[in-house]
Write a structure and sequence with these properties.
Blueprint (H helix, E strand, L loop, with lengths): L4 E4 L12 H11 L3 E9 L3 E2 L2 H4 L4 H4 L7 E2 L6 H14 L4 E9 L5 H8 L6 E5 L2 E4 L1 E4 L9 H16 L7 E2 L22 H14 L2 E5 L6 H9 L4 E5 L12 H11 L1 E2 L8 E3 L4
Parallel strand pairs: 1-2, 2-5, 5-6, 6-9, 9-10, 10-11
Antiparallel strand pairs: 3-4, 7-8, 11-13, 12-13
């Protein structure tokens, strides 16, 4: 059995034009997943969008850029989203369907995050970093245009460390290797060993916080990082496809589960549990 998918986006996420909660549930059932968590985007950061970046954006997103040159993500409609979760629970009674949110930079937006999470029951809250505040707050996606890859990775991990050391209300750290998705083709390949010290610092702080690490399979997480998590004393792993369309649910899970097992993590007592060190196989 594949692990649960703990990070899926649907039509309720502003950047998931092809998302569908109902069809994602159907895909999870087809794959035999024990559960699925719909962690929709809750972004409160507004991003500076340079003209050359705007030209590459989808028209519907480019239209959201204000006169000040900033993109402001639309808010998550918590009530309507949670009602959709309940409908899917009724449609798919054999699948455990979790509500959730992926909150971007929650340590920057304490009051907004508090208001969102107070609007209903969110079973799974992911904390993530998509942005850096360097010369204006910009999405990491586009910062390789103006920053050396090694410098960007180190700046990103420094911000992730600030998130992990904060009191922000999240249970799982999402995509610790997020910038690697946008690694320049002309640069030497990404080697996590170059940043081992920075990764170990973040993972040690995450372990001390009692939170879980996500193995995000959008880009396979390097085995070394999973091993460093175990060596840091990390207690739990969550697998997340970061799917923005149903066909991507649980992508690469079999391969990444093998990586986690090699590092010392095992399925929990119940199929829908986090994977844990020394768990029951």
């Amino acid at each position: 059995m594949l692990p649960p998918d703990g990070h899926v986006h649907t039509e309720w996420s502003w950047d998931a034009a092809s998302g569908s909660m109902e069809r994602s549930c159907a895909r999870a059932v087809e794959l035999g997943l024990p559960s699925i968590a719909f962690t929709e985007h809750a972004d409160f950061t507004s991003w500076v969008i340079d003209p050359e970046v705007k030209a590459r954006m989808r028209p519907r997103n480019a239209a959201r850029i204000g006169a000040d040159g900033r993109f402001r993500p639309p808010p998550l409609d918590a009530a309507a989203y949670l009602a959709c979760v309940q409908r899917c629970r009724e449609l798919f009674p054999g699948l455990r369907v979790l509500s959730g949110a992926e909150v971007g930079e929650p340590h920057w937006h304490e009051e907004q995050v508090k208001a969102l999470l107070g609007a209903g029951t969110f079973d799974r809250v992911l904390g993530s970093v998509h942005s850096l505040d360097t010369t204006g707050t910009r999405l990491v996606d586009f910062l390789f245009d103006r920053t050396r890859p090694a410098d960007l990775i180190r700046a990103y991990l420094a911000e992730v460390l600030r998130l992990v050391e904060s009191a922000a209300p999240f249970a799982v750290l999402a995509h610790i290797d997020y910038p690697v998705r946008y690694w320049p083709k002309e640069a030497p390949g990404f080697d996590p060993a170059r940043f081992e010290g920075e990764y170990r610092t973040v993972l040690g702080a995450l372990a001390r916080s009692g939170r879980a690490l996500e193995v995000n399979t959008r880009v396979p997480l390097p085995p070394a990082i999973v091993r460093w998590w175990y060596e840091a004393g990390g207690a739990a792993l969550v697998f997340g496809s970061d799917a923005h369309e149903p066909s991507a649910v649980a992508r690469r899970f079999a391969d990444q589960a093998a990586v986690a097992e090699a590092a010392g993590f095992r399925p929990g007592q119940h199929p829908h549990d986090f994977w844990r060190r020394g768990g029951t196989a």
